């Protein structure tokens, strides 16, 4: 695999919670530090594009994400994204050709003990290297076709649609 392009959009993976206010903010992208700490054996570039909860990602944001990826020569792209609108963003990227694009995120912030962030990132890194060209979602230990998956909010996991 040539260098991996990582594009961040915010979401729970990058959230920082403030206990005294019971509030959160989307902080700096966590994935660069996670990949370095894991000692990955490939180069990567991180483009911090958007810092939003995925419920606030708009069609204009999706168009910006699509244009940013299209402008890069990299064939392997990993996107960190909030889970609530990840499926819609994946579907909006489906027309990008000759690339393997994998979206992943976390149901708990990367800074929390027991977060699923590192596991999901690891699955996404494996998927971006082995999946055929197209757009995929890596969550809960599975690689999903975005046309055939949904987030089950009540169970807090992704499942077949």
Automatic annotation (TrEMBL):
<protein>
    <submittedName>
        <fullName>Asparaginase</fullName>
    </submittedName>
</protein>
<feature type="domain" description="L-asparaginase N-terminal">
    <location>
        <begin position="4"/>
        <end position="155"/>
    </location>
</feature>
<dbReference type="InterPro" id="IPR036152">
    <property type="entry name" value="Asp/glu_Ase-like_sf"/>
</dbReference>
<dbReference type="InterPro" id="IPR027474">
    <property type="entry name" value="L-asparaginase_N"/>
</dbReference>
<dbReference type="InterPro" id="IPR006034">
    <property type="entry name" value="Asparaginase/glutaminase-like"/>
</dbReference>
<feature type="binding site">
    <location>
        <position position="54"/>
    </location>
    <ligand>
        <name>substrate</name>
    </ligand>
</feature>
<feature type="binding site">
    <location>
        <begin position="83"/>
        <end position="84"/>
    </location>
    <ligand>
        <name>substrate</name>
    </ligand>
</feature>
<dbReference type="Pfam" id="PF00710">
    <property type="entry name" value="Asparaginase"/>
</dbReference>
<dbReference type="GO" id="GO:0004067">
    <property type="term" value="F:asparaginase activity"/>
</dbReference>
<dbReference type="InterPro" id="IPR037152">
    <property type="entry name" value="L-asparaginase_N_sf"/>
</dbReference>
<feature type="active site" description="O-isoaspartyl threonine intermediate">
    <location>
        <position position="12"/>
    </location>
</feature>
